[in-house]
Amino acid sequence: MAKFTLYLVRHGQTYYNVFNKLQGWSNSPLTQQGIDDAVATGKRLKDIKFKAAYCSDLTRAQKTISLLFDQNETFNSITPIVSPFFREEFYGYFEGLNMDEVWYQAGAPHGAKTFAEIIDQYDMNVAKDFLKQADPFHTAENAEEYWHRLQQGLDLITSNPNIEDGDSVLLVSHGNTLLSLVDRFSQPGQFDLRTRPANGSITKLAVDGDQLTVTDYNK
């Protein structure tokens, strides 16, 4: 397995982001700001020669990566691998509902009234478990279900035989997924996970075989 840099980009702003709604596997279109986010990020990355690119199969991520590709000539020689493995966390019954109200329902029975308080008192995995518990249909992904899916995506990347030492690889995904990766692969307290990654932001991981280390967050 190779040693390479994985660039994680959050999709551009959507209307659900503006309305403070949980998006999960649901979709809303990119706003004009979201389109501008993606174009600006593409320009920031235009001089990087990516060996491979991956993307969530949700529409907002695919639209974002297409805008990134428009800004980078090196993408002419590669085709992004689109997979549901890279989707956002599935919020089940809470899809499309107000984010603050949902996290209150999930966390308040455990003494944490906001997402930030859940992260402060517990962690990202516990937040997922709380949400599934609060879901009246229990269809939201808990931590075990979420990581089983996402790990298949990470394995898809690290097992790519075309990626060599020193290469750069792109992944376009989602806010809570980026937070989850940073939480799992950074040192405790290294980054403030109460700050969500901005739309179009860049987070970088150093990949060494199956070992991942976060080197930059929300740039």
Tell me about this structure.
With 219 residues, this protein is an alpha/beta fold. The protein has helices at residues 15-18, 32-44, 59-70, 99-107, 115-121, 124-134, 143-158, 175-185, and strands at 3-10, 50-56, 81-83, 168-173, 202-208, 211-216. The protein has a single domain, classed as 3-Layer(aba) Sandwich (Rossmann fold). Strands 3-2-4-1-5-6 form a six-stranded mixed beta sheet, with helices on both faces. A hairpin with a 2-residue loop joins β5 and β6. The two termini are 27 Å apart. The mean pLDDT is 96.
Q: Please name the CATH architecture.
A: 3-Layer(aba) Sandwich
* CATH top level label: Alpha Beta
What about the largest sheet?
Answer: 6 strands, mixed
Instruction: Indicate the CATH topology.
Output: Rossmann fold
- Please work out how many helical segments DSSP would assign: 8
Would you tell me the overall average pLDDT? 96
**Spatial strand order of the main sheet:** 3-2-4-1-5-6
Count of DSSP strands: 6
Oligomer: single chain
Short summary of the structure?
The chain is built from 8 helices and 6 strands. By secondary structure, the chain is an alpha/beta fold.
Protein traits:
219 residues, alpha/beta, 8 helices, Rossmann fold, globular, six-stranded mixed sheet
Please outline the helices and strands.
Layout (H helix, E strand, L loop, with lengths): L2 E8 L4 H4 L13 H13 L5 E7 L2 H12 L10 E3 L15 H9 L7 H7 L2 H11 L8 H16 L9 E6 L1 H11 L16 E7 L2 E6 L3
Parallel strand pairs: 1-4, 2-3, 2-4
Antiparallel strand pairs: 1-5, 5-6
Helix pairs in contact: 2-3, 4-6
InterPro entries: His_Pase_superF_clade-1 (IPR013078), His_PPase_superfam (IPR029033), Phosphoglycerate_Mutase (IPR051695)
GO molecular function: fructose-2,6-bisphosphate 2-phosphatase activity
Protein name: Phosphoglycerate mutase family protein
